[in-house]
Amino acid sequence: MPKPWYRTHPTTWHLEMDHFINPFIPASFLAHFPTPISHFLGYRSPASQRAKKPALGNLAIILFAFVGVFVTITIIGAVGEHYEGFRGGGVPVVVGSFGAAAVLDFYAIESPLSQPRNAIGGQLLSSIVGISIAKLLALSPHFESIRWVGASLACACATAVMALTGTVHPPAGATALMAVLDDQVQALGWFLIAPVMLGCAIMMCCALVVNNLQRRFPIYWWSPKPTGEFWTGGKGEGEEKEVAGLEKGASSGGKESEETRTGSSSELRLARGTRSDETLRDVDLEAQSCGARSESGDDDDVLDCTVLIMAFFTLPPKQSKALPIVNPETGQDTLPLPTTHFKHAAPNPQTKKSAKTQATLAQGLWFPPPPAETPPAFDADEQYARGFDIYAPTFVPAALKQINEYAGTVIDTFPKTHIDYLQYISGILPTSLLPALPRPQFADHLSSEAPHLSPQCYEKYFRSLIEVELAYQRKENASYSLYGHTGILRFNDPNEPTVTITVPGLRENTPNVQVDDEVQLRQLRFDYGGHFESSFFPWTGYIYNARVSAVVRATETLVLRVAGITYHTAEVVTPTMIPPWPTEFVVKFNIQFFVPMVRYTPMMDVLPHITQSLDLAEQVLKNDFDALDSFIDEVTHNGSARPKADELSTTNVYWKQSMLFPTEADCNSQTHVVNWLEHYDSTRFDESLNYEQRIAVDSVLCQNYGTMPYLISGPPGTGKTKTMIEIALQLVRNVPNCAHILVCAPSEPAADTLADRLSKSMSRNELLRLNRPTRDSREVLSNLLPYCYIQNDVFALPPFAQLMSYRIIVTSCRDASMLMYARLTNSDLFTVSSTLHQQIHPTLPPPSKARLHWGALLIDEAAQAMEPEALIPLHVVSPPLKGPEPLLNPLVIMAGDEQQLNPRTSCPSTPLQESLFARLFKRPVYANHPLARRLAKDAQPPKQQYQLHPDLLPILRPPFTNLIRNYRSHPAILAMPSKLFYFDTLVAEADRHERNRLKSWPGWRGRRWPILYHDNPSPDDLEAPSPESPSSTATTGGWFNVGEAHLACQYALSLFRSGLVKQSEICIMSPFKAQVRLTRSLIRSEQYGMMWEVNVGPTEAFQGLEHGVVILCVTRSRKRFVERDRGLGWGILPGGVRQESQAGGGIRNQLNVALTRAKFGLIILGSREVMMGDEEQDDDSPQGGETGPEKEDGRHAEKDKGPPTSKTRGEKGTEWAQIIAFCERNGCVADSNQVSRWSTSAQNNSQNENGEGQLTKWETDVLLTGRGRKHSMSSGVSGSGASSTGSGSVSATMEWSDVDEF
Question: pTM surpassing 0.85?
Answer without folding.
Answer: no
